[in-house]
Amino acid sequence: LSKKINKIDLIIASPSVRTTQTITLICNEMKYDLNKVVYDSTIYRCSFQSMLKAIAKTNSDCKTIIVVGHNPTTTEMANALQKDKAFTDVPTTGIVAIKFVNLTWANIGKKKDTLWFATDPDEIDSEGKSKID
């Protein structure tokens, strides 16, 4: 993740124990202030529509956000928001990055955009390089 993304503007996460552990690792690696993470209980085991509503609240000044949630909603989001790849299951700590063009967060989900990259933790080698890139 740190090799692909230079700056994170916002992290939105479910407050579960597992996502909190994941967020701590991301923040340490990405030099993101853990105190700035927005923990949103509405995305814990939520519906697709609830996830969209949580993202839609994001300030338009935020260009790069990370959302850490749960399946099956994560996989549904990955498929609904991009047109390039069909995911059957985004694995735990898997990453799906989507580039949105001419889209405000308030309009998230209105159109599909472009898959930037995706990683599966089982496809990362011992040097931290994706075997699928």
In brief, what are we looking at here?
The protein contains 3 helices and 5 strands.
Q: How many individual helices?
A: 3
Structural class by secondary-structure content? alpha/beta
Q: How are strands sequenced across the largest beta sheet?
A: 2-1-3
Q: What is the end-to-end distance?
A: 12 Å
Count of β-strands:
5
Strand content: 15-25%
Q: Shape, please? A: globular
Q: Oligomerization state of this entry? A: single chain
Q: What is the arithmetic mean of pLDDT?
A: 89
Taken in chain order, the helices and strands follow as EHEHEHEE
Biggest sheet features:
3 strands, parallel
Give Rg in angstroms: 14 Å
Give start-end ranges of low-pLDDT stretches.
Answer: none
> Helix coverage percent of residues?
10-25%
Draw up the topology in text.
Blueprint: E1 10-13, H1 17-30, E2 38-39, H2 48-56, E3 65-68, H3 73-80, E4 95-99, E5 114-119
Parallel strand pairs: 1-2, 1-3
Antiparallel strand pairs: 4-5
Tell me about this structure:
The strands form 2 sheets. This protein has a 3-stranded parallel β-sheet, covered by helices on one side. It has a two-stranded antiparallel sheet with strand order 4-5. It is built from 3 helices and 5 strands. The protein is of the alpha/beta class. It has helices at residues 17-30, 48-56, 73-80, and strands spanning 10-13, 38-39, 65-68, 95-99, 114-119.
